[in-house]
Amino acid sequence: MEWYLPVIWAALIGTAVAMYVILDGFDLGVGILFPTARSERERDLMMNSVAPFWDGNETWLVLGGGGLWVAFPQAYAVIMPALYLPVIFMLLALIFRGVAFEFRWPARTSKKYWNIAFTSGSILAAFFQGVILGGLIQGINVQNGQFAGGPFDWLTPFAMLVGLGVLAGYALLGATWLNLRTEGAVAERARGQAKMLLLVVLAAMAVVSLWTPLEVERIAARWFSTPNIYYLWPVPLLTAIVAFFLWKWLNEGREAPPFIAAIVLFLLGYLGLIISNFPYLVPPTLTVWQTAAAPASQIFMLIGTLFLLPVILGYIVFVYWLFWGKVREGEGYH
Amino acid sequence: MDFDPLLLARLQFAFTVTFHIIFPTFTIGLSAYIATLELMWIRTGTAHYHTLARFWTKIFAVSFAMGVVSGIVLSYQFGTNWSRFSEVVGNVVGPLIGYEVLTAFFLEATFLGVMLFGWNRVPPWLHVFSSIMVAFGTAMSAFWILSANSWMQTPAGFEIVDGIVHPTDWVAAIFNPSFPYRFAHMLTAAYLTTSFVVLAVGARYLVAGQYLDEARTMLRMGIGFAAIVAPLQLFIGDQHGLNTLEHQPIKIAAMEAHWDGDKPDDFHIIAWPDENAETNRFAISIPRGSSLILTHDPEGLFPGLTSVPASERPSVPIVFFAFRIMLAIGLFMIASAWVGVWLWRRGQLFETNWFLRPMAHTWWIGFVAVIAGWVVTESGRQPWIVQGVMRTADALSPVPGGSVATTLALFIVVYGIVFSMGIYYINRLIHRGPPSAAGESEYPTASRPLSEGGAGMRAGSA
User: Greatest CA span in chain A, whole angstroms?
Assistant: First the structure.
């Protein structure tokens, strides 16, 4: 039990983070692509394609952060101070783009500012989420179980590159989402953007994958030793296959398949990260077992999660089903 | 330049949490009000309940967005600014917040989508159900967060092993001694605050001679609710105070500016508590009032501030004045609601401008009372972050003061913009008023769904 509980919790939080990245990824992506709209009407359409969902999507971020605190309080207590500035910058960016959803409608002359807030908030939130990820991969300075580094340890070229990679990735999710949910000029433009973004994402994945083993020795050791290397090579191969089909489906003008392929692409990248870092929660020192909460706390929360998570997933699926299909113009409560 | 990280972190949390609490207070109350309106609409078929529900839903959406984004900040601030706190008490407080996410946040966020965008897509009963789910979610959220906060005031059901808090009894931890009182007090505060917003908007329209049907409904509902619940809140607050006297007597001593525990004390209506001289200056008092309220005996004794060293006391003036602000607003609410009922019985409620004009400006008073109340309970707990378990000074993250100062400045700028624009837009939505029930001009026929039986639903909803 002492061994399994932290692993189960790591899997649950990993799932919450994956859900967040995919779900908020596409609505942040729509925000990133927002300035490419040609008219206010197109912007309304783009925003309405994600408006019923963004709130629920962002809740996964709270579950990810809150879950980390619940299950691994020591990791939470090290990661948050270590990545203090990027975490708070991300939160501030999310504030701007979150309120823009609601402020844009009653606004008249100030509408253009909320368009800017929506875009820049989406871009900065995506970028800093990538920076946080990069900061984690490159490792956190821990002594005696406490963060012992400086306030700008995260500020490295590697972390900036991961930030740009996540930015491009979210934009790709957003473009394939728009292709799925909208029609006409917006969808057509989104397909073109998706193809370009796919190339950028693949390039970013390649550079990060080459740079990671150079930057982080322990990951190099894990990747390039036998027998690991035999198990790991399917990940890049699968990525290449999925990318190929994503390109093909975009060319054929398919609707749902490109979005699904973009999600799979994200999950493959995520899988690569897990393979490279597990069981470290705070690389390179603290594992899931070292940072785990008291078993009584993990069990108490696990029982509730096992009952509640299926219910939550149930009504989330219901709401997505309810709003499925092409987004209709002028729909809303405004 | 040297910054004091502790002071800055406390300022930052005080700022962000004060900003945040405004919105949950309003959305807890408003979601319940909207659900009530929709229920009345579906039961009576009266159109203006529906009109009102849609009108308030727009304002709800703006407020809810501000509550969500400022709430996400808090869930991360425990770690960024108070990492030692997170580590030491995470085993108990963490799961309480975790349950809040699972039972409340997903529920309200997901059904909010249906509530806002589902009018044309779901049958009326399902829309009513969604609104009820949102209202239920906001109340559940209050349940867990108040449980977590109450645990910090009156911790129970735990043991300390190697300096880390471990749970021993979850029921005792969740239903810790102050929780029932604090939960009741806050939930009631949220509903009461919202009733004053609603009645203020009703009064505003009546004074302006606009939207008279809707305005009368709002005023009646607001006054009727407040006339019963405002006195009830006074009683709950009194019970909460007695509970605090039992578990956190020094907080009560600070609220009353009661220095010497060997003597019974007056209730100081106004005074300047002098912390250096350990006495009150310029006091205007009701003789033996405090003893009477707290012990139900004019000669009753209760612990004074001097029973602990100065380093163990909260800031007396802050707690003392915040308590008086809350109490004064509470008493004003009772008085004004009863005046309203008196006018109502005389059949003059909708015409009495000397009453309606000032009431139109009372929308904010509940929020001030809520913030003042939180200042009392949070400042009154100092120097502890978890009463008797952990001091605030020991809870800090290893983050340099410069980082905290930078982010504090950013929070002030960003929240300043967002808050002032939010108030501005809400005011504009109120100024625009409810959509006219007959025309619904802002929903052009082009948007009417032709499929999925939507047209039928619209007919049912008109």
Answer: 63
pTM above 0.80, yes or no: yes
Among candidate residues B153, B175, B144, the one with its CA nearest the CA of residue B28: B144
Over residues B274-305, the pLDDT tens digits come to 888 888 888 888 888 888 888 888 888 899 99
Contacts of B103 in chain A (CB under 8 A): 304, 308
pLDDT digits (tens, 9 = 90+) for B89-120: 999 999 999 999 999 988 998 899 889 888 88
pLDDT at residue number B174: 96
Q: Which residues of A touch B449 (CB under 8 A)?
A: 328
Considering only CB atoms, which chain B residues are within 8 Å of A324? none
Using the Cβ of B163 and the Cβ atoms of chain A, whether some distance falls under 8 Å is answered with no
Answer whether residue A102 shows pLDDT above 50.
Answer: yes
How confident is the model at residue B436, as a pLDDT? 67
All domains in chain A, ordered by first residue: 4-322 (1.20.1630)
Average pLDDT over residues A271-284: 85
Examine the pLDDT at A331 and tell me if it is beyond 70: no
pLDDT-based confidence at B2, cuts 50/70/90?
A: low
**Residue among B83, B442, B446 minimizing CB distance to A81:** B83
CB of B425 within 8 Å of a chain A CB? The answer is yes
pLDDT attached to residue B1? 53
Of B90, B107, B116, the CB nearest to A293: B90
Could you read off the pLDDT of A19-59 as tens digits, one per residue?
999 999 999 999 999 999 999 889 999 998 998 898 889 88
